[in-house]
Amino acid sequence: MLYPIAELENEKLSALQALEKEIGGPVVALTQLDTNAADLSKENLQKIKEAEEELGVVLVALRPN
Fold first, then answer.
1. pLDDT at residue 51 above 80?
2. Which end of the chain is more exposed for a tag (fewer CB within 10 A), N or C?
3. What are the backbone angles phi and psi of residue 5, rounded to the nearest 5°?
């Protein structure tokens, strides 16, 4: 399962911003995405790790549907 950043409608975004003001700090809204990680070979896993280091991000390889 993955939890990407949620796209919020204006009403929900306003509610989140009000909550942030109330608690005095940022809150990140995530949404649940049902998926399965890919079953990678050691070679391909190493390629993913190298790409993560080069790009400065976390990468997740998914199993195609």
1. yes
2. C
3. -65, 130
